[in-house]
Amino acid sequence: MKCKYCNCDCIKKGIRNCKxxxxxxxxxxxxxxxYSKSVIPKEKYQWVKQLNNEGCGISSISxxxxxxxxxxxxLIERIASMLKPPxxxxxxxxxxxxxxxxxxxxKKKECWIMYAINKISGAVIDFCxxxxxxxxxxxxxxxxxxxxxKRVYTxxxxxxxxxxxxxxxxxxEYCTNRIERKNLxxxxxxxxxxRKTICFTKNERMLRNCLSIYFDxxxxxxxxxxxxxxxxxx
Length: 234
Ligand SMILES: [Zn+2]
Known about the structure:
Elements: E1 10-16, E2 19-24, E3 30-32, H1 42-53, H2 58-65, H3 69-82, E4 94-104, E5 106-118, E6 124-130, H4 134-145, E7 151-153, E8 169-170, H5 177-189, H6 204-215
Parallel strand pairs: 4-7, 7-8
Antiparallel strand pairs: 1-2, 2-3, 4-5, 5-6
Helix pairs in contact: 2-3, 3-6
The protein binds zinc ion.
């Protein structure tokens, strides 16, 4: 047998649970040919998605699904990598762009969630996590301008006028009502950005993953509706 870490030859060394164990001659690691321990069942993927969107943090998801915290983190990462960005083919619509302030690691390290929504349907067009710089905001405005918008509504941040053509850019009081309301939903539905809790984001990549799971439109279809089959409620 070849080592799965370094591809060198392995020698037979011991038996555990009626299975032959091997040790690599080069890196000395132990391994077996096939692992029978089941991986996390598929329906737990759906549960991770749903619990993430219902205000559960990583610790609470791992407690509810009875998997370890590191498995939960890995699952979130895997789910986020499986999601495809939605292909939006609409033109002549109105959009709102806004930024939501949060922090990453410590309160001193501020971090912004910048995103754009369709003013009528509320669908998220694109989002970006990071510092509130011109480059980051440009990524959002670019994906909005690509859709040939009728109007783009933003707040009075001084970066927008240089990025959005003046003819379609609108800034006035209460023009970003819809996205401001969505900010409140975000703060309620995602544990890591809700206020007055001790939960916070330790890692910007994880915030990005949780947001892409939250913003994924396909989540509206609940694939596995029976709860007591997946969750072991004692
Ligand atoms: Zn090896």
